[in-house]
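ARCHIVE RECORD
Type: protein–small molecule complex
Small molecule: adenosine-5'-diphosphate
Source of inputs: curated submission
Record status: active
Notes field left blank by submitter.
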Amino acid sequence: MRLSIRWRLALWNTFALACVLSLLGGLVFWLFRQTHERIDRALQERAEHALLNLDQSLLQQFQQLKNDPQVQTDMPKRLAHWIYEFKEHDSFFCVVYDQTGRAILKTEEMPSQSAPEPPREDLTAPQYQEVSIPVLGRQRVLQGRLHAGSENYAIVLLASLAEIDRVRLEVQNERAEVDREFRAVASFVAASIPVAILFVGGVGYLLARKALAPVDRLNRLAEGINAKRLDRRLPVLHPDDELGRLTTTINAMIARLERSFAEIRRFTGDASHELRTPLTAIRAEAEIALAKPMTPAEHNHLLGSILEECDRLTRLTDQLLNLSREDSNGFTQVRDLLDLSALVKQVTETMTPLMESKGLHLECACRLALPIRGDESRLRQVFINLLDNAIKYTPRDGRITVESCRDGNNALVRIRDNGIGIASEHQERVFERFYRVDKARGRAEGGAGLGLSIARSIIQSHGGAITLSSEQGAGTTVVVQLALNELSPALGSAGRS
Ligand code: ADP
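STRUCTURE (tokenized, with ligand):
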């Protein structure tokens, strides 16, 4: 099932918005995540930095003691002094153990139950720990060993972790805060995208329906236009918008259809009329033959004229057949390479006896070879029709000139007569089907008014043009123009006339 345009528009619209929103949502999410990570790293560093500072202070104290020269000479005194100095750091405590693990010295303010365990025997480098000490609470502990002569002491330095823990707690809280914000934004984005998509989808559908409503109206109106109502037109409300332009185009198409229908009707009427005339004549002549006894000579005369009418009918039906084939491109597109001058010369020669019988003078100047591509028999038909007209409409002793030449990339054939000519008001219409300037004389001459329209159809199907210029009483010139086929191998000279 294919969805209607309004549904498709709405769905595409929604799809596009969903893509944009998803991309934007993803981007916001990514940016937020980056910021989150950066803040997290900064907080982490803050906590680590505070611990590092504390560790460095403890180590500094230990190193000071270790590097003091008095330690080697007068250890007990130095230790006592060192412990005393420790009083200045109210949050620092110190305990010194002897080799047996007995606490021999400690910061005075330190409660006795808070003394930590002595370090292990195998402790070589200073070591940090975090432990919970009774009364003192959480402490950072630095354990180290000190050698003075043969004596071996264990030093334990304690510093309160209260400040560090405070920083850590702060960091934790801030992290949790950032996490909360991040989750809030993420859930807002996740919830708002479907809502926005639904909203835009709905609005898009309504808009598409509103925008396409005139199309439905046009559709209903167009349904009322049929072959019998081709005079109707669709209303153009806004000529400059897309729909206005489409309606104008449809109206132009209906106008063309109306013209074509009128032409077809006229053509059918003309054709039936033209077919009817010889049929009526044949019937009348046959009735005469039956009605009264006749001499053989009278019989022959009657049969002769019946045959003449039959010839006229045959010619007419052939012409109609040719025209309908031209109209429907029924002819196979033969494109033989041929010399137009030679073809015109041949046709002229064929028609010379007819010209001579009418006492007409002929001049044929078709010397230059003019290579073209085309259907020889149909082109021959064109020149037969044109020469036939020139002969028919030129009185005795008249002159007919046929010449061919090249004009740039085109081949031209000009057929000129000094016959009766055509009045200017008819010149435009002589290419129309069944159009005759002088109806009565045309029929007497045997023409149905199809010769020029057949010629034009053939020439146009060859991509060429045919034009006519005439002056009443002075003569007519018809020019046929066809494209030269320059790439073809040279043809022998056509005219040796
Ligand atoms: P037809 O078969 O009647 O000659 P055409 O289509 O060949 O039909 O010509 C249409 C009309 O044009 C003719 O009836 C005639 O009146 C006019 N016509 C055509 N060629 C000539 C010409 N060379 N001289 C004068 N009139 C012409």
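CURATOR ANNOTATION: The pocket of adenosine-5'-diphosphate is lined by residues 385, 389-390, 393, 417, 419-422, 430, 435-438, 442, 447-453, 476 (CB under 6 Å).
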